[in-house]
Amino acid sequence: MKYRRILFSVLLVFLLVTSTAFAAKPVITADHTYFDVNTGLYVLKGNVYIEVRNRVITAGEAKVNLATLEVSGAGGITVNQDDIDFTGDSVYVYGTKNRASIDGGVNFSRTGLTINADRVDFSWDTRIASFNGNVHVSQGENERTADSINYNVDTNSFM
């Protein structure tokens, strides 16, 4: 009887661990893909689409490390999740750290709010976007500019 309980517990833990591991498996498509054995990266070109944990990244080209879920992309990138939409020239996603850095003509939009800047760092853990360089905020009829600004996407407020 004791042996069956231990076996059942081990099987249950195994099922939980494997189902969690498969839940984070990304969906990746592009016009041209190849695996660079020298760098260990997938190299993607043309209509790049990467989806991990309902976060979607699109780009003209990108490199992906599946072990760390790190993504570097360029060429009209977008980073979307739920009602969070970022666009810019390039992106680096630190997958295991749940962070993204977007550079070049950054645009963030959601209902009733638009923020433009040179760069943004976003954390999915804290849900804070830190905009830097030529920041312009348009919220309804109100507009303002700043060198930098922090925005909490959950509370829809500036810090």
Automatic annotation (TrEMBL):
It comes from the Bacteria. InterPro entries: LptD, OstA-like_N. Residues 28-156 form the Organic solvent tolerance-like N-terminal domain. This is Organic solvent tolerance-like N-terminal domain-containing protein. It holds the Pfam family LptD_N. Keywords: Cell outer membrane, Membrane, Signal. The keyword Membrane applies. Residues 1-23 form the signal peptide. GO terms for cellular component: cell outer membrane; transporter complex.
